[in-house]
Amino acid sequence: MPFEPIQQEKLSKGVVRQVEGLILRGILRPGERLPSERELSERMNVSRPSLREAFAELQEQGLLVSKAGAGVFVADVLGSAFAPALVTLFATHDEAVFDYISFRRDMEGLAAERAAHLGSDTDLAVIDSIFKKMEVAHQKRNPSDEAQLDADFHLAIIEASHNIVMLHMMRSMYELLREGVFYNRSVMFKQRMTRDHLLGQHRAINVALQARDRDGARAAVAAHLDYVEGALKDQQKADRNEAFAKKRFEHEAGR
Q1: DSSP bridge partners of 74
Q2: What is the reported pLDDT for 95?
């Protein structure tokens, strides 16, 4: 973690400002455990009392939480961008699913373009590392790992865009996706042909990013989400046909 020595201000205030900045930029994530008090005091060059004073202020702000016997953690500062009643509507109406994908296409396309232009070499290395893990999970045919890495891959691109508002907004949106509000991502990764296509699309995104090809990265994200949209529509059609066939069978059997 990139903690630095504090200089030229009240030490506890300097700690507060630095931790605030790390949370704001998404470097410290919700639920992440901070290093030990001893390690932090050495790395930030502050006394333990100053560190405790800063942590007390950050806990009062709702940015950190202390868990007895476990340590200090970043609070769940994301929450949901939507009221529970609206989340329920999202989960039960197909039009919300496709509007969500359209929203992702726009936002993530922009994020990929920015990442290719503004992302640091470290940012791009992180994205490449996650993609390599996706390849390994693909070979092991582990749908749940692939689904998790899929989310990690896309969020790493958003982080590399260096837009803090986009980052926190999209993290909140991805929490809804992880919870299956919009659709079950694991189902897509259980189908061999679909999995192969998805891996190829993520490869195209990664290749464009590593080449810092802004237009190529945005186009690759759009192509990927167009495919996801088409796959979901095909799945919904298959589900409707299956339900119709089942209902017809039950009707005829009841005669």
Answers
A1: 64
A2: 83
